[in-house]
Amino acid sequence: MIRHLTYVTVLLSAACKATPPQPPDYIVSYTLTASSPITCDSVKYKDAQGTVIKVTSPTLPWSVAYLAPTGSFVAGTAWMVATGSGQAAKLKVTWTISGVSTASDSSFGTTTAAGKFVLSAAHQL
Q: How would residue 23 be classed by pLDDT, with cut points 50, 70 and 90?
């Protein structure tokens, strides 16, 4: 009986030493879309290390994705150029915990005249 209790005690103490759960990683994606003939002068976004990346004259539609830890700050800005009114553009940032949840934030604009405009979206994970 004592041998059996010792075995149970060893099993219980091993089970109690379980590692705490780790915060999830997110799949972060930025997507930039626009109606023709809107063009994008440049787009800037923060990567998983917090480095600002600039892409000059991206071909639309444009997108990028990467893995980011909990606590990351995601932010994107796009500088757009429209040739007339009624043209639309959208910058969307999406963050997903694989198999669990997806959320997003976006910036959307429709022009009233030719000219430049800015789209921006940001979120703390």
A: confident
- Indicate which CATH number applies to the domain containing 60: 2.60.60
Contact in structure between 122 and 92 (CB atoms under 8 Å): no
**What value, to the nearest 5°, has the Cα angle with vertex 30 and ends 24 and 33?**
150
Question: For residue 67, what are its two tokens?
Answer: 């893995």
Beta bridge partners of 70: none
36, two tokens: 């023709």
pLDDT, one tens digit per residue, over 53-81 is: 999 999 999 999 999 999 999 999 999 99
- Smallest Cα–Cα separation from 86: which of 31, 35, 39, 120? 35
Q: How far apart are CA 81 and CA 79, in angstroms?
A: 7
Q: Which domain holds residue 56?
A: 23-124
